[in-house]
Input
Amino acid sequence: MATRHFLSLLDLTPAELAQVLQRGIELKAWQKQGKAHEFLKNKVLGMIFEKSSTRTRISFESAMAHCGGSSIFLSPRDSQLGRGEPVPDMAKVMSRMVDCVMIRTFHQSTIEVFAEHSNVPVINALTDKFHPCQLIADMQTFYEHRGSIQGKTVAWVGDGFNMCNSYINAARQYDFQLKIAAPKAHYPDAQVLKAAGSHVEINDDPAWAAQGADLVVTDVWASMGHEEEQAKRNELFAPYQVNAELMALAKPDALFMHCLPAHRGEEVTAEVIDGTQSVVWDEAENRLHAQKALLEFLLLPQS
Ligand code: CP
Ligand code: NVA
Output
């Protein structure tokens, strides 16, 4: 059976994503009940991080520990990758030693090349293009609070970067309507957008996007790698702040999500992120449960 990877949300079918979502909910319940779920006994996850992380590292390491396996954390200083070892060589070597590889890096092409040369599943743990692990957690979170997201309306307000691109893929895979409001200079990837067809509409008006939404989502204005543009971006993105006024345009029971880390007073006010419509802590926790389900799906494929 061919090795399955998770480089974007499109690597799983909608039915498989639905299966992962339900299994994430089940594994969350099992953990809360103290029910053992050591289905990854003796399995090893190699984790390559070329950017910082709180949630991704902790959730993957905890997931492997809870499921009976273990993980190896590699920052650029910890492996020869940081000293220029070719990505295909790294992939060939690692995949002879570990059962799965998780990578957080800059270019989507890096993980694509890695996956091409890997005999074990490769998981995208964030690139400049996508952050699919966050989306499986977000979709589980929406389901837990409001039921199926199919046919609902989601407002993306802010930078059209990796999270926004993944929301576009999610609109296709989970069948919801996505309204994106971003400054024209920061629109998402044109090809990703085009491929989503009528699932996605785009404008530069945050009020238009928020109007009638079931879910409002944003992200930092200066992602990892864009820190030097912070001041310029703060000015450009100021009209895109998710505040109480903007949330008031969404449905009264609309949820608010943010992948975190958040900058209160920039892309979101403290009133919104710490308010009653925000589900960001459930969203962060669900990284753990959704990724356990993903690891099981990739490492223990059903025949
Ligand atoms: N949301 C997310 O991926 O967080 P980290 O950067 O802390 O891993
Ligand atoms: N867009 C953010 C997401 C962080 C989880 C970044 O790339 O820094």
About this structure: The CA atoms of residues 160 and 185 lie 9 Å apart.
